[in-house]
Amino acid sequence: MRQVIGKSRAIQIVTLIFALIGILIVFPVRIFTQTLETSGGGTIVGETEGINFENNRIYQTFIAQYDRLSSVDVYVTNVEKGRYMTASLCDENGAILLTTYVDTGDAVIPGYVRIPMEMNIEVGKEYMLRFSECRSKYYLALEDVPADLAYVGDLTWNYEKVEGRHLAAKYIYRLPLNKTVSLAIILGIAAVAAAICLCTRAYYKKHLDKDNLITVEKVLEYSANPVAALIFGALMIMVFPLKVFDSRPLDIVFYEIGLIIAAAIVFYAINHKVIIHTEGISFWQSLKNEDRLQYIFIMFSMAMALWYASCYMNDLYDIYHYLSERRMSIWLIVMLLFTFTLREFFNIYNLVWVLISTVFGVHYYNLHKVAEDVNEYDLQNALIKYNMIILILGGLLVINLIRLIILKISELRYGASHSKKTYAVPSFFGILMGVLLVSMVILRNTRLWGIYLAVFALFLFIRFAVWDKKKDFYKILSGGFMMNFAISLIYCYLHRYFPGYVSGRFAFIFHTVTVTAEYFTFMGAVATVMLIVKIVSLPNDAKLKDIAVIAWKEIVLFGFIMSYAIFTVSRTAYLAIAVCVLLVICIVISYKKKQFFRIIGVFLISLILCFPAAFTLQRILPTMVADPVFYPIDDADEFIRGGADWDSTNFMCVERFVNLFENKIFGMDMGEYTFPMDPNNYDINGTGEPLYDFYGRPWNESPDNPANQESGRIDVPGADMLLASSMRTRAEVIMLLDELEGYVDTSNALDVISNGRISIAKSYIQQLNMWGHDEMGATLINGEIAVHAHNTFLQVAYDHGIPVGILYTITLIIALASGIRYYSRNRENEPLSLITSAVVIGFFVAGLSEWVFQYSNPMTLALMMALVPLTYKVKEK
Length: 877
Hints:
By secondary structure, the protein is α+β, with helices and mostly antiparallel strands. Helices cover 52% and strands 13% of the residues. The strands form five sheets. Strands 2, 3, 5, 8, 10, 13 and 14 form a seven-stranded antiparallel beta sheet that branches. A hairpin with a 2-residue loop joins β11 and β12 (160-161).
């Protein structure tokens, strides 16, 4: 950052960087698109019957021509009552993929009305459009069916096929720019960049006196500040006065505050002076320059291994589990390979192995690959490829470890006698961990993951024990964890909507908040340690400004991680993280007794500042990208799938989150939240009564209006087109009843609150034995199978036998004691060593309510990596 370059060279470099970004956006990212309109090509010959509350079963099938359905224009002949249409996109089985309300108030009727979709679909697959009422009655035009019609299928009305007719509709697909246009833009960008570079060179060649030296730091400021100002300025204007995301004053104010805080963080990151502080510590600056690139590669590999472990947690079928597990294993091997230097890696042994194993791998793949006519052939072939990659990379790792160990033994035996030699031997904890892993392998009871875990642990512990850069291990470990969080956060900004419904609990990159709670337990533990270490490194009289300057990155990381943990609205997450954080603080203040209130104060300030920024960015950025990813069991709202309206009230808002939090965490009944998605159907600024009844009749003329009847039912707004209440939603109630029915002790409040975990634990305890079980899952009192015990200690004992369960518990307790002891000995020269204790605590706490010990679980990977320094001790010879 402090290196200097000429001003002309700086302008040319910045120009080329922006040109490269622009070219990459055009291709291969292909962010710019065009639309293509298709239609059935018939002639309008009639119209449907009136679509209203009773007659609403009209379906039009069609075959997807491209992979992004932008919108559908349907011809509306008349809107007799009301003003809204309800349109749904369904799969071939009729399952609703997306639903939207379309306001016809400003449309020209009769005429085409646009139904926005922006939905990713599968080319060649059959889909259905369903049209229904929304307190309205309307008619759609019908076309005759041309003889060459290929992609528009049957039209059905009340489940009966309408012969010779289909809806008058235009199907509009969104496509990347074609090659000609893309090439023209790329050439234009290249030409402009070349012109700027040539003009800059010519100008400063004539004016050499103006070609002053400038630091890289200044170049970054001059180029990044305008971009950041443009982005945040545009977002703030979109929030207000344009009101693109919400029209409610509370949300507008909150989003503006969030954007201001986010902008302040970005501008500080760009403009702060990178200096070596006389007080405190800097993890990055303490690294040698020649080691930083290697460490970044190790961190990235670690982050990607955790990413695929997270993917494993989302997978529902065995084949996807196998694929995620293999990808994770590949990145773990790559991580260990990056610990070798180029000199160690490039040798004749490795070259011979790569050649032989690659030839074998290609031959094996060609011999065993699955034919294209077999179901899931592509997935099975990918699995074979990954196995061959693991074979090649794993062989490289084994060869280099053996070679390294032989060289180390030779050095100890034949090296100069006057030089001091060090070597690593297994510690007591390392031996105990080895015994546990071997026991799990012996009593694996048909399970293979214990073998995979033992092999990975063996390579991991040996490699770092004989690594000559092990002093930087904790910096690499913390960097890898935080890099994984950054990758996951970017993914969320691109693909994960922040929904207010159905459950409203944000699961981050996972399909359930339970797994999210596990993830944030160890991420929160690491972020806590990183921030605490920075705080306690300063003198007791250090001011808040000094803390902010030395620890601003850790403050932001901690604040964002804890904000996303809050978004889960999960008692499990809150309890696990709170216990973990408090225990870590207790360990620190046992040595730094006057730091408690300062630590708590900085934590609170970090959370208060980052929460609005995290909430705002997660709410608005994915809606702008409009490329959401929904998992198969996501409790997702059909109204915010695809490219939902940016101001849809089904996205999370401040009022909804507050109501949800108060209800879920404090059990407070906050009443119903009734902000309608169809505001022209309700007098929301007055009485809140509907403007139309279900049939589209004016409310003051409707027989459903209590004022127009002596006695009778009252039409309840909120039962059909309003948002769900702040209480449990219908889906949540059904899921809860299905989960708890039959085996929960309803007389035990703790069992009900814990979703039956007490009853599950009792069933597992009753079925424990000495040697474990082949099948995972104990039988409950109602005869059902509990897939896992929701308790890691019980699960290990059930799977592998009571002795292994006891050994596992003892190993974790020893790990915590050893971690605290290791930190007490190294807190001055390696304060980040507290991470081991923090991760063990988080793992222990999370394991009390969930099953977190498995080879492909991200918490297990985090634990094994954090335990590395405890498994060996260094001796001198």
